[in-house]
Amino acid sequence: MSEKLFIFWHYLSRLATVLCLCANCTLVLATPSANEPISPLPKRPYAHPHIVQLGKILFNDVRLSRDNSISCAACHNLAKGGDDGQKTSTGIDGKRGTRNAPTVINSSLNMAQFWDGRVNSLSHQVMGPITNPNEMGSEWDSLLEKLRKDLELSAQFERVYADGITRENLIDALVTFERQLISNNTPFDKYLQGIPNSISAFAEQGYKTFKQIGCAACHQGKNVGGNMYQNFGVVIPYPKPDSDDNKEDYGRYEATGKESDRYKFRVPSLRNVTETAPYFHDGSEATLEGAVRKMVHHQIGRPIDDESVRAILAFLKTLRGEVSGDLL
Ligand code: HEC
Ligand code: HEC
User: Fold this and answer.
1) Which of 203, 250, 296, 306 could bridge 314 with an S-S bond, Cβ 3.0-4.6 Å?
2) Could you tell me the domains of the chain?
């Protein structure tokens, strides 16, 4: 291919990706480079092993919470899909939040963090739980003072950061660790790379259905989601379930205040979705099959037969990957 032709083709492929991000689009316009709406996960980025190790320690350290009772891992258990398996999470003093904990695995690949995308970087995200009174309830000054008393931890910080334990360094270590949480080597990514027999014929049939009926219009890209905001109930409105405290969740509207964002949520990633029950922003759906059926009903609006549901479930299983054992 000549260079000019290549540039033109590259431009067209970009355009196609942009077009398919439009709201309510049901067409799947794949990037011609891969010819698929979903692309394989990138590799773990390089990071200094001492910083990753420090981030891992902090992620599992209950001292980040005011009363030394919970760590990040309490709500984001990496051995169990990176979430807590609860409908909504329990923070310090048994306080319950209003949203289901999303997985931290592959979350660095989402365009923004949280169900409403209210922060666009992991560094800003980390500040949330540490000081959120419903989660860890700490105050920065007392937290840093508490940690500085630990001479071993101080030495570990000083090994990689000249100024030792500071808020910025703590955030940097946690975020560096979180960026390592990529679930590589999924059967589906091997299939995308053309490796024969990576997934069963039934799972492949499920993937085809997933594309044909329009799931991939929203759940797409390297994270099979995480790159747009959509309403739950684009075709058939979703009855708002009572949340525990009976407060309605307005989703993206709570972050932007824009009327058009009311009830929009960031489309969740479906990577590792078999491990992250219960489902939806309010954790209202206990099973993956139930979640798929609700999506078919509310987002697609046309029924599909039971075999197609089973095939989609078989496809979703192939999105399961594992984070590297040294991070657990
Ligand atoms: C009490 C439970 C709890 C604790 C402790 C907790 N989280 Fe979370 N986490 C949640 C919930 C719930 C959400 C979703 C909140 C929302 O969308 O409004 C979330 C969201 C996130 C997200 C966004 C993921 C995405 O895809 O949007 C990341 C990243 C994250 N937490 C990392 C951390 C880190 C790092 C810590 C420790 C400093 C931590 N969490 C501590 C419950 C918790
Ligand atoms: C119009 C966009 C759109 C389409 C089409 C769509 N989804 Fe979704 N999907 C979403 C949104 C938004 C959510 C989050 C809803 C919420 O929690 O409020 C979601 C949530 C999910 C969840 C729950 C994930 C979790 O971690 O909680 C699954 C599973 C899912 N979708 C599968 C599918 C399947 C299978 C299809 C096709 C039958 C489909 N989706 C079609 C936008 C879409």
Assistant:
1) 203
2) 18-41+184-317 (1.10.760.10), 49-179 (1.10.760.10)
- pLDDT value at residue 18: 39
Give pLDDT tens digits for 272-295: 999 999 999 999 999 999 999 999
Ligand 2 pocket mutation, candidates 22, 215, 229, criterion most atoms within 8 A of CB: 215
| C-alpha 245 chain-centroid distance | 25
* Ligand 1 atom, smallest distance to 70 CA: 5
Single out the residue of 259, 239, 230 nearest to residue 117, CA to CA.
230
- The reported pLDDT for the residue numbered 3 is 44
Structure tokens at 82: 């990176």
Among 99, 131, 104, CA closest to 116: 99
Can you tell me which atom of ligand 1 is nearest the CA of 108?
A: 29
Under a CB-based contact definition with an 8 Å cutoff, are residues 51 and 45 in contact?
Answer: no
CA 307 to chain centre: 28
Q: What is the pLDDT of residues 223-243, one digit of tens each?
A: 999 999 999 999 998 876 555
Q: Judge if the upstream peptide bond of residue 303 is cis by omega within 30 degrees of 0.
A: no
Active site residue 3: no
In this prediction, the residues of the chain whose per-residue pLDDT falls under 50 are: 1-3, 5-33
Structure tokens at 94: 């048994």
Residue 266 forms beta bridges with which residues?
Answer: 229
For ligand 1, atom 9, the nearest C-alpha belongs to 101
Q: Which of 3, 36, 135, 145 is catalytic?
A: 135
Residue environment code for 155-165, b if the CB has 16+ CB neighbours within 10 A, otherwise e: ebbeebbeebb
Residue 72 Cβ inside 6 Å of ligand 1? The answer reads: yes
Q: How far is the CA of 89 from the centre of ligand 1 (A)?
A: 9
